[in-house]
Amino acid sequence: MDKTLMPTVFTSHHHWYNSIVDSLSSISTPTASFIDPKSMPPSSPQVLYSYDKALHGFSALLSPDELQSLEKHPACVTAYKETKGTIHTTRSIDFLSLNPHTGLWPASGYGENVIIGVIDSGVWPESRSFRDDGMPPVPSKWKGGCESGQDFNTSMCNKKLIGARCFNKGFKAAHPKVKLKMNSARDTEGHGTHTASTVAGAFVDGVSFFGYAPGTARGVAPRARVAVYKALWEYGVYSSDILAAIDQAISDGVDVISVSLDIGGVPLYKDPVAIGSFAAMEHGVLLSSSAGNAGPLLGTLHNGIPWALTVAAGTIDRQFSGMLSLGNGHTILGWSLFPASALVEKVSLKFDEKLSACNSSTLLSKAGPNEIIICADMGTTLYQMGTIVGLKVAAAIFISDYPVANNLLGGVPFPGIVINSKEGRSVVKYAKTTKRPWASMRFQQTSVGSTTAPAAALYTSRGPSPSYSGILKPDLMAPGSQILAAFVPSTVAATIGNNIILSSEYALLSGTSMACPHASGVAALLKAAHPTWSPTAIKSAMMTTANPLDNSGNPIKEEGEATKPASPLAMGSGQIDPNRALDPGLVYDATPQDYVNLLCSMNITKSQMLTITKSSKYHCLNTSSDLNYPSFIALYDNETKTRVKTFQRTVTNVGPEGVATTTYKASMIAPVGTRVTVNPQILVFKKQYEKQSYRLTIKYGRNHKGKA
Question: Where does the Inhibitor I9 domain start and stop, copy by copy (predicted)?
Fold first, then answer.
């Protein structure tokens, strides 16, 4: 809505919006400008949310005729239908080299007094990760609150968990006959508790996932405050609820917003995360978002928002194992997450060609209850496990080179170990050539530093961004695979067989949803260390210092591809490096008007742009698709005639004050088939916050296969 047209008789825009909706007459089955008409009973027009910071407007329950009347109102800019979205540690903190002695942790006071808003499925407030032992009073800038509700009262908030709210009016309008399982900020799924504790959980000793990953759990910013905004419900997440949560978080005074969900398949002007994050950026708040879990296909990335941080997921250098010992003395360390300390001692080992596909419960039922069966590499390990789980076999060995671990959220539901094809051949040979082959198994093994990492996770969505491909997305990569963090003890964490359900206060989850809070936490630490930096400057510092190399000193690879380097479309600038981000030297900053200049270059209407910017104070006098961004992307195909692209960039010196002169020299490794030049190649800065510009030109011809 255009707020400049609000009559003076109204005391606030909230009253004005309600008056507009009340004036609409309904003559048909209710629907909404945001809600599916098929899901709702008849009712009068109703305002669900009125927005202040994230959007100048409201979401409402309207019939088609009411919507048509509303669109004729002189203050109506545009209206969109409701859309539904999706959701997308003991070692990862060490893997990022955060430590109490040097770098970002001590420089930021562990994030003390920074407020992080987490928009997700709520929180389990009793978790030890949200204890406030030794925390100072809540910062005076905090304007939020702690809502009471079902199984949740205000006393459950404290000096760590300082806020908890829920947003479900959009969900209720879409599902009016559905009774919510938990109508409060309490988490019943585990996703929100996991992400909140990853970003800012307190130090908790002696945690593990059924013996795996034992150690001390803590968040990236362990002294930061957490405010939880529940917008994810058991039947999904809706755009009006997401936008209301972002709007409230900005009003409450958060410094960083972490969003591990998305509304996919919509343009920026219909995307609540894009709309809300623009408002957050205007108010000095960085919004960090997950890239999605639709990899490894290109062009599947979500949250490719130019003014938000988009985070891909990578692996870490930790392996969960089961130890397989053969009767010939050969010992193999394979992958396993069987959630018990079972002893499989000298059990008969069986390899049968007819059974080895392990895809028929009828055939597998012929295996004896005192046998370990061997399942051949069919590329279907998960299906094989599902087939075996209800059978009476002692244990199973799976041969696979496919990275199955990140797809097994609840572990392995029976004594089973996954080994690679090389080891598999030796096991099969032993079973086939030995008169009485046997094997033993041990579980709950955890090893650190034994694998090359990080690798770009197989599942992490790849760019270019469908919503806008002119900015290279994702921005960077953070740990996202098998992350241990707080969980909901009232839900399923693992199973044994079909009948034994196990719960846990801490669980291992994988996804870009887990990577996002790692980056959100680093952003919070940087905000504490550099309180005057803009959200764009913080994002720049994280991107320009990200590491493109793994722990072996070689380029980061694709998961499961030992020789295939990961593309920037998979990992962005590389693995986030918190300690280097503390002192980036130079940052690429941008103002809200710079982002508007980018929007002006897109093929969108004025009303669509106003949905994002909310204000006519911005202009299109300097339209440009060349945003001052810390990365570059040049897109072309065989039809492209001009294969030269020049980028203009301005950098700001944020190095230490008092340093007389600082010199930077350009160094480049050009992609195959291209030539990259920088002018000037040397920048000399004589004072802090001095700005200088350069041009980067990419001239591309044909790749090594002779194609454009």
Answer: 2-86
Strand partners, 652: 587, 691
| Cβ atoms 357, 400 nearer than 8 A | no
Is residue 322 within 8 A of residue 395, CB to CB? The reply is no
Contact assessment for residue 79 and residue 230, using Cβ atoms and an 8 Å cutoff: no
The edge-to-edge listing of strands for the beta sheet with 586-587 is 586-587, 644-653, 691-700, 674-679
Enter the tokens of residue 57.
């407007």
d(CA 376, CA 337): 19
101's torsion region: left (phi>0), alpha (psi -120 to 50) or beta? alpha
pLDDT of residue 563: 87
Comparing C-alpha atoms, which of 68, 72, 70 is closest to residue 58? 70
CA–CA dist 544, 539 (Å, integer) = 9
Residue pLDDT, tens place only, 500-545: 999 999 999 999 999 999 999 999 999 999 999 999 999 999 999 9
Strand 161-166 versus strand 500-502 pairing type: unpaired
Residues facing 646 on adjacent strands: 697
Distance linking the first and last C-alpha atoms of the chain:
46
Looking at residue 84, what is its pLDDT?
A: 59
**Contact between 664 and 611 (Cβ < 8 Å):** no
Render pLDDT for 458-467 as a digit per residue (tens, 0 to 9): 999 999 999 9
Cα distance between residue 51 and residue 92, in whole Å = 37
Helices 535-544 and 512-529, axial angle in degrees (round to 10): 110
| Low-confidence residues of the chain: pLDDT under 50 | 26-42, 87-88, 704-708
Q: Tell me what pLDDT residue 361 has.
A: 85
On the CB side of 182, how many CA atoms lie within 13 Å of its CA?
A: 24
Residues with catalytic function: 120, 191, 513
For residue 364, give the amino acid letter.
L
CA distance 384 to 375: 8
Taking alpha carbons only, the member of 418, 440, 445 closest to residue 328 is 440
Report the distance separating Cα 33 and Cα 58, nearest Å: 10
Cβ(303)–Cβ(290) below 8 Å: yes
Which residue type does 66 have?
A: E
Q: What is the model's pLDDT at position 38?
A: 42
Q: How far apart are CA 370 and CA 348, in angstroms?
A: 7
Which residue bears the tokens 């959980």? Answer: 201
> Are the C-beta atoms of residues 466 and 299 closer than 8 Å to each other?
yes
pLDDT of residue 641: 65
Which structure tokens are listed for 240? Answer: 């009006």
Task: Give the whole-angstrom CA distance, residue 591 versus residue 673.
Answer: 34
Give the separation between CA 500 and CA 245, rounded to whole angstroms. 37
Q: What is the pLDDT of residue 707?
A: 39
The residues that bridge with 212 in the sheet, in sequence order, are 209
Contacts of 383 (CB under 8 A, 6+ apart): 359
Contact 217, 484 (CB under 8 A): yes
Strand partners, 683: 664
Distance separating alpha carbons of residues 390 and 387, to the nearest angstrom:
7
Distances (CA, A) of 678 to 545, 568, 662, 666, 668: 19, 20, 18, 7, 9
The per-residue DSSP string of 540-584 comes to: HHHHHT-B-B-TTSSB-EETT-TT-BPPHHHHTT-B--HHHHT--
| Structure confidence at residue 42 (pLDDT) | 43
Render the burial of 55-75: b for 16+ CB within 10 Å, e for the rest. bbbbbbbbbbbbbebbeeeeb
* pTM as predicted: 0.88
What confidence score (pLDDT) does residue 382 get? 81
